[in-house]
Amino acid sequence: MRRFRSLSINLSLSIVTIILMLLATEGLLAWWDKYPPRPRSYVGEYQDRPGRDFVVDKEVGWRLRPSHAFVWKIDGTPSRYYANEQWFRISNRDSNETEGIRVVMLGDSFMWGTGVAYEQTAGHYIESAFDSLIVYNRAMPGFGVDQIRQSLEHWTMPLQPDAMVIGLYTEDFDRPFFAFRNGVNKPTFKLEEEQLVEMTTRDRPGWLLHFLERHSYVFTLGRRVDRWFGLKYGLGSWWALNGAFIDAMQEIREKTNIPILFIHIPWENGTPFPGRQSHMKDTNKDFIDLNTQWKSPKERFSCYFERDGHLNATGQRFMSRLIIQWLQTKVATTS
Prior knowledge:
This protein is an alpha/beta fold. 40% of the residues lie in helices and 19% in strands. The protein has two domains: 34 residues; 277 residues, Rossmann fold (3-Layer(aba) Sandwich). The chain has a five-stranded parallel β-sheet, with helices on both faces. The chain has a three-stranded antiparallel β-sheet with strand order 3-4-5, with no helix packed on it.
């Protein structure tokens, strides 16, 4: 009994010490405003509120308003964007040409070409480099890795393209954890027994998780640590979900025998993503990390807008040259 009482006291003291340490850490982080809470959004929490330039797409999230033109200003310079009847970005003169090698570009605003005219996008540069090649731009601003995978399945495979190029910006890997983004509810997934399963309203958090997400700095720090392990080593729950989306895209490639090139587009500061590099190498995926292609930080900075952070025309052309080299080895082209 004495031993049991001693163990109970020691265990209680340990628990109290841990709680006090957590509370102290919580107070310090709140005082410094380090790692403020960033609650995720879950299925059915909000009503759709799409903007004037985009419409809801239940299978993917959103897409451009069909037969629509609008202007965005990037770094003080306005650019006009055009959408065709199928709701995808085109030049100001839509081509009806359908004969030729079909290459699909997938990704977020970087692949879509935010801040540059259509004639300055990587897709246009690629198309111009070959005699008989058509580029279909199926990228969309704001997409995460989950939506890129969905766009591959629902927007790309019906085209039966000859090749696919998938650009993934580092921030795209944070977006699958939010069911409501840009005023729109989108399909959101979880992992069950290593399989991607679409989430429902039953997957909303209980009261404790709900409270921690909205109020706890320590809880947010824990998620940041999990994310750091994903970026650095390809480990943890953050990476597990994102890696599953990449592998799901590769599975489609293996079933259809359509070559896919994955491109890593880093933040402007060049922060590396070694966890993803290791995964792509271990799974034998065709992969280009732009970080390894620039000869110097000066060359890297020249490829981004000064304040906005997207690839500028120089960056789009730089990326297109790498894609063109890959296409020349993967599909029968005549340049």
